[in-house]
Amino acid sequence: MSAEGGAGAPLVALVAGASSGIGAAVARRLAARGSAVALVGRREAELKEVAESIRAAGGTALPLALDLAEEGAPADAVAMTAAALGPVGLLVCSAGAIRLAAVHETEERHWERQLRVNLTVPFLLAREVLPGMRERGCGWVVNIGSGVGSEVVPGSGGYGVSKHAVHRLTELIHEENRDRGVRAVTVAPGWVSTRLAARPADLGVPEEEVLDAEDIADTVAWLLDRPARMSVGPLIRVEPTASRAAAGDAMTRHLNRSRAEGAGRAAEENR
Ligand SMILES: NC(=O)c1ccc[n+]([C@@H]2O[C@H](COP(=O)([O-])OP(=O)(O)OC[C@H]3O[C@@H](n4cnc5c(N)ncnc54)[C@H](OP(=O)(O)O)[C@@H]3O)[C@@H](O)[C@H]2O)c1
């Protein structure tokens, strides 16, 4: 198996954004493959629940309740993982913040929050783990990007910009480290049924046409099974098959719906 450390032991993993959705599914999958996994997120109860499900299946999990947007938190997460489980050999960044709005409607604090969580946090985590991976001659950095990081979707605002930039960050990490045995990949999903995305039923799309978090965990597991000589990506898009479940279009419809609801609420309040 390619996702192994030098001595053949599975790599220690750190999953940022592991309390729900894609990150939780990826964390469970990595643990099932034998990795000891640090689970990072802000919601302690949810993290503990994910950790319990991993332990119940015989795996090793370390829940770390941290706000990664806070100064020093990414470095703390890496240090706490290394102290408890060993050096991080597999970093997955799935933490995400989203606030859809056209550029002229975007508040500065929302812009900064999205850039911080979606771009700066992956940068800071990668900066912490890369020196060790380079030294050991193996490692993985998997960033969860987005289809709207590759497409110009009106209203994707700071979210789309941050995802576009994280795709480039991953490409840089890939080029700078490929000769040191470190592979970097962005897995960029389209619409996945999670708390972060619009509910399919709200936009008239059958639930089964939208991706499941397990589909993204499958993709990550598939990547990790490639032989060491093989690099895939560095950008892999995973989209629903049906065009009516395409993320860009859904995002625009979701935004228009939220605007209409907002306008309705404002009219109601003014009455
Ligand atoms: N769902 C989709 O359609 C879709 C499509 C394309 C890309 N993505 C990307 O997939 C990734 C995962 O999202 P998801 O869909 O699985 O939604 P989700 O269930 O809401 O997951 C987001 C995760 O990010 C964590 N997070 C957010 N801010 C954080 C912070 N400041 N510090 C630490 N953790 C933080 C959340 O944990 P806490 O709340 O506990 O902190 C949660 O675990 C995101 O990067 C998202 O942009 C999703």
TrEMBL record:
<comment type="similarity">
    <text>Belongs to the short-chain dehydrogenases/reductases (SDR) family.</text>
</comment>
<dbReference type="GO" id="GO:0032787">
    <property type="term" value="P:monocarboxylic acid metabolic process"/>
</dbReference>
<dbReference type="InterPro" id="IPR002347">
    <property type="entry name" value="SDR_fam"/>
</dbReference>
<dbReference type="Pfam" id="PF00106">
    <property type="entry name" value="adh_short"/>
</dbReference>
<dbReference type="InterPro" id="IPR050259">
    <property type="entry name" value="SDR"/>
</dbReference>
<feature type="region of interest" description="Disordered">
    <location>
        <begin position="243"/>
        <end position="271"/>
    </location>
</feature>
<feature type="compositionally biased region" description="Basic and acidic residues">
    <location>
        <begin position="258"/>
        <end position="271"/>
    </location>
</feature>
<dbReference type="InterPro" id="IPR020904">
    <property type="entry name" value="Sc_DH/Rdtase_CS"/>
</dbReference>
<protein>
    <submittedName>
        <fullName>SDR family oxidoreductase</fullName>
    </submittedName>
</protein>
<dbReference type="InterPro" id="IPR036291">
    <property type="entry name" value="NAD(P)-bd_dom_sf"/>
</dbReference>
